[in-house]
Amino acid sequence: MAKNKKKTFEQHLEQLQALADDLEAGDLPLAEALKKYEEAIQSFRLAQQLLKKAEERIEILLRNAEGELEAHPFGAGAEESKEPTEEDESGDSDDELFA
Fold it and tell me: Do 74 and 59 touch, CB atoms closer than 8 A?
């Protein structure tokens, strides 16, 4: 693949798997194994950056006090705005069951 063409997250994962397979085989000379290890670290970091960018774009729809849907950034207040469940309303919790 051309170096100037950006890889997708999935392409980085495929490359990481191929590099891991090569390294796990254990039959590479040390210099070549180190080169593949460096490639794997670089591909891992690029995949991690792509994943972080994707996470930043995710929004979760939550209901506000009026019952209307509103958008919130991923991970911001998801627990605070969840709908109560029957278990929440009854006061039973797993902590009490296993105490």
Answer: yes
Q: What pTM was computed for the model?
A: 0.56
CA gap 1, 45 in Å, rounded: 18
CB atoms within 10 A of CB 22: 17
Which amino acid, residue 57? Answer: R
The conformation of residue 5, written as its DSSP 8-state character, comes to S
- Given 3-state DSSP classes, what are the helix, strand and coil percentages for the chain, each rounded to the nearest 5? 55, 10, 35
* Per-residue DSSP letter, 28: S
Cβ(81)–Cβ(66) below 8 Å: no
- CATH numbers and ranges of domains, the chain: 1-81 (1.10.287)
Residues 24-40 have pLDDT tens digits of 999 999 999 999 999 99
